[in-house]
Amino acid sequence: MRLIEALVSALLVAGLYASSSYGLALIYGVMKIINLANAGTMMLGAFMTWVLWQWIGIDPVISVILVAPTCFVLGALIEILLVRRVSGQAPIVSLLLLFGVWLVMESAAYLIFGGETRGVVPAYSQATLDVGGVIVPVTRLVVFLASIVILVGLELFLRRSFLGRAIRALAQDREACALAGIDTRRVGTLAFGLGTALAGTAGALLTLVFSFDPDFGRVLQLKSFTIIVLGGLESIPGVAFASFLLALAENLTVTLSKPALENLVSFVVLVVVLVVMPGGLAALLRRRRLA
Amino acid sequence: MSARLAQLARSSWIHLAAVVIIGLVVAAVPIIDARSFNLQRVAFFVLWYAILAGAWNIIGGYAGQISFGHSAFLGMGAYTTGILWYTFHFDPLLTLPVAALIAALYSILVGAPTLRLRGPYFAIATIGVGEATRLIAVNVDDILGIKLTHGVTGLPLPSYDAETVYFATVVVFVIAMAVTIWIRAGRFGLGLFAINMDRDAAETAGVPTARLQVIALAVSAFLCGAAGSLYAARQQYLDPSTMFSFNISIAIVLMPVVGGIGTIWGPVFGAILYSAVQDQITSLVRNPFVPTLIYGVLLVVIVMFEPLGIGGLLSRLGVVGRKLVMPRGGDADV
Amino acid sequence: MRKLSAIALVAAFVVAACGGGGTGGGAAGSGAPTSNAAANIPDTLKIGAVLPLSGADAKTGQYINDAYVLYTKQVNDKGGLTIAGKKVKLDLRIEDNKDDGATSSQLYEKLITQDNVDFLLGGYNTALVTPEIKVANRYKIPYVNGGGASVASYADNTWAFGTLANIQALSHTQLDFLATQQDAGKLPKPLKMAIVYENSSHGKEFSDGLKDGDASRFQIVMNEPFDLNGKDFTSLLNKVKDAKADAFMADAHLPDYITMQKQYGQLGLHHLYVTYGARGPDQSAKDQLGAATDYITSAVWFDQQQPGDLVKQWVDMWKANTKDAPEWYAASGWEAARILYAAIEKTGSVDKDKVRQTLASTTWDNSLFPGGSIKFDKTGQATNSYVMTQNLPGGKTILIWPKDQATGTAVVPIPTK
Predict the structure, then answer these.
(1) In terms of domains, do C214 and C192 share one?
(2) Dihedrals φ, ψ of C367, to 5°?
(3) Domain shared by C160 and C172, yes or no
(4) What is the mean predicted confidence (pLDDT) over B62-82?
């Protein structure tokens, strides 16, 4: 029974982690850029949701309808005005650039909203469901289901739609795309915008579970790095799977050892995977299949 | 090759002379005015930041491996001194070489596996290492059941003369700058620049890339550890969340990048700007987040338009010679 | 000569960065304290303080800030302090340390060496107060604070004073209360306690204090630290669930209290007794959590429902002049300012060492705190007793301890839903 509870708990947490990682994975996969501003966008998504909640009282899940497009536009702008300018240079340059963007976002939020911790408390925030003896908080279930929807929607988009396939093509071989007549710059912008929208959506949904301040997203972002590295930097389902593994590892650490070490798990895994398995689990599996 | 090296060596002497002059000027402050506590305080932090920025520059600027986890080395040095001082009552400044050495050894431990990674991957790995080090420092006492770092309670240290620490800081600063100048002028530095530009080409040309990078990181960590030791001696209180914080790691990156990455004086400009902003703008504007906003904007602007940072801007304005702020003596390519 | 211009530039920067520095003067360095004769009483006295006005503790920092500002204003409206017959105005300078300990101690140092403040009012949160006290001792300036309660902060201390009694006493108070509930048959004996505490000296002392309980009455089934300002306590709370304890004893600061209690409810946890140390009736928690804060007890250094006219007058005055709830943070900050200024007046001089001696030796009456007076022990900490509160459904909070000050009966055990 306890094992089932642990698995369910890990599954729900995985939903949180996966949601916050999809955007990062997409942008990296397509543009080979590590978007450090991902945390900033999540935080902006959370604050936007909070503002909407305060003014109009709309539920965070509904506010995604407004938050996602806004973040999409924001991401596209960042790509066109900033990222594109440094696209020819070493990858570290875009890393530093986006880091600077994150700093700007964070300090702007501090200046506008102050450093207080805020929360969004819809009516069902304390509600729980009894699923076969396991108590499941409704808010976490909502986020989990949303992350599944995003996962499925994203995969469908990437595999079935023209734009989605163009994005995947861009991820595989930029030059070939150009030769095939795809407007690589436009697709790149759209991919960046989409990744940012995903981050903003994650921020909006996560307000159901977490309280937040302008520094929100930092710890999650570090875990997202671990997840996308573990899951293979270019695989969306890999992200979901790796999220689950990480959540499970953390859960076990807390249960079997000291809760204070919970965050240590992700950092150690990050470093180990980077050094030992740069392609992540996806590469490991691909190698098996080919062999 | 040797003609180029000779040219570099010549200009290096001038840089070195400048460093020594600055060192003497700064050291004179407490001698001239025995009660100039404020000036000493400001000068201490400018020098201290300059040491950190310059140290980072060796691995981040010269070798091109951007590290977001340098506070790990700072903390290692600080805590080594702290623990030796607290437990064995050694004079903290005497423990400085040990602290620096421990930081360097730690850097080899974490650097050997991770320096193989390229650019952004290394950067992310350093974030992981930095945060992992912090968590270990916070929890090691509980895990091992000993009293080493005292965890979050913090390590309270005995009193110590601030002026002595100040002079020691001046000395470490001069040494750090001298090391920076010397590296740039020599084959070691040449190797690092080659790795920075194109690691594979350098490898093909016979440069021992792995070894050079590890050495660069070790030197960088050594200096950071020394700075940590100085901090412990002056502030007389250590707390792992502060010493190993991500915020300090960010500052250590911001300073040399904003000041002029890969140059000799860039880190110093960056340190001066950072201290000045931290110290003065905060009081002026009454909001501590304005500086962070400024840094963020500066970082974006500099990354996009002027990779040589403030030094580069100054050279464009003709205030200083272009050669002064070039990463290497007189080359047009960065 | 471009190199020379570069050197000149660097030197110019260094000088510019020193701002209004010049020669520090005024403040004593690591040498002997300046024993000014009482003759040098300035027209204005500069008071410096550094508080977390942004970051996780912003809310609490704001309370203390408002207390300092309001009290200082009231003193200045009356013409200022009277020191040896001379009216002296107060110039209060408060800086924001962004909830960071290193920043805080550096800012205090700057206030001392650059702004030449005469006396210091303290900060908040043990992790920040501890290095601040170090600075006060280094520069030998009296520092009175209402925000640091951990014994560790006052180790090797001569110049700092704190109005908050130590945390172990907080734990003992709760144990005393629990013992009476056990005797009345409302709680099992022995009581199984699951303890989670923030990883700080504050939290450690809370846990240590609970370990002092009588073994026949109290059994500790879980005792774990957690990282401050965490976002997700699910795994920790699951572990608490497994421990099958009767009482959930947590020690956390406000942001963690809010996050943890939110998730406590979501995970469907229930205990006979729940406490978050000195947190519980905080208004911002009630705003964010609503009914999830019901039945939580806390042991605090002050509550507005304490009996007596003095308390009532202060609460009314506070509500009339600020938008803040009259929580203990405000009262504590108020007392710190009141006692510092009273000490300066009583000493009749601005000599730092003399003021320090006055602070150490006087019993400060007319206090808002339980007992009505504050006397600092030899480490500089006050030793007043605690009062305990409990939140009732509907947003009301009652005083439940000590018996003679209680305004209602505690609901023990917590009813199941």
Answers:
(1) yes
(2) -95, 150
(3) no
(4) 94
- Per-residue pLDDT tens over the stretch C49-93: 999 988 778 889 999 999 999 999 999 999 999 998 899 999 999
Condensed to tens digits (0 to 9), the pLDDT of residues A171-182 reads 888 788 888 888
Unique residue bearing structure tokens 């300073």: B255
Report if residue C314 sits inside a domain: yes
Rounded to an integer, what distance in angstroms lies between the CA atom of residue B39 and that of residue B24? 15
For C134, the domain range is 39-165+310-361
Nearest CA of chain A to the CA of B229: how many Å? 26
Question: Token pair for residue C149?
Answer: 């309660």
Inter-chain CB proximity B117 and A275 less than 8 Å:
yes
Cis ω on the peptide bond leading into residue C402 (within 30° of 0)? yes
Contact indicator for B22, B181 with CB cutoff of 8 Å = no
E strands in C146-268: 160-162, 191-198, 218-226, 247-251
Element holding C48 (H helix, E strand): strand C44-51
Q: What is the CA radius of gyration of chain A?
A: 19
Q: Is A54 helix (H, G, I), strand (E, B) or coil?
A: helix
**Alpha carbons A11 and A144: distance in angstroms, whole number:** 8
Q: Which chains touch B (3 or more CB pairs under 8 A)?
A: A, C
pLDDT at B326 over 80: no
Q: Which residues of A touch B113 (CB under 8 A)?
A: 271, 275
Q: Which residue of B has its CA nearest to C226?
A: B139
**Which residue of B162, B248, B321 is in closest CB contact with C2?**
B321
Domain residues for the domain of B215 are 2-246
Chain A interface disruption, residue of B115, B131, B245, B297, most A CBs within 10 A: B131
User: Does the beta carbon of B145 lie under 8 angstroms from any beta carbon of chain C?
Assistant: no
Which CATH number characterizes residue A209's domain?
A: 1.10.3470
> pLDDT tens digits, residue range C311-355?
999 999 999 999 888 999 999 999 999 999 999 999 999 999 999
**Structure confidence at residue A109 as a pLDDT band (50, 70, 90):** very high
Give B10's pLDDT tier (boundaries 50, 70, 90). low
Q: Which domain holds residue A264?
A: 2-290
Phi and psi (nearest 5°) for B265? Answer: -90, -10
pTM here is 0.87
Spell out which residues of chain C touch residue B277, defining contact as CB-CB under 8 Å.
none
On whether the CB atoms of residues C132 and C123 are closer than 8 A, the answer is yes
Q: At which residue do the structure tokens 């604050």 appear? A: A47
Q: Which of A117-126, B129-138, C21-30 has the lowest mean pLDDT?
A: C21-30
In angstroms, the first-to-last Cα distance of chain A is 39
Q: CB B239 to CB C18 under 8 A?
A: no
Distant-in-sequence, close-in-space partners of A238: CB < 8 Å, separation ≥ 6:
A25, A228, A230, A231, A232, A280, A281, A282
Domain count, chain A: 1
Residue pair C91/C307 in contact (Cβ under 8 Å)? The answer is no
Tokens of B327: 């990463």
Task: Choose among B329, B256, B200: nearest CA to B60.
Answer: B256
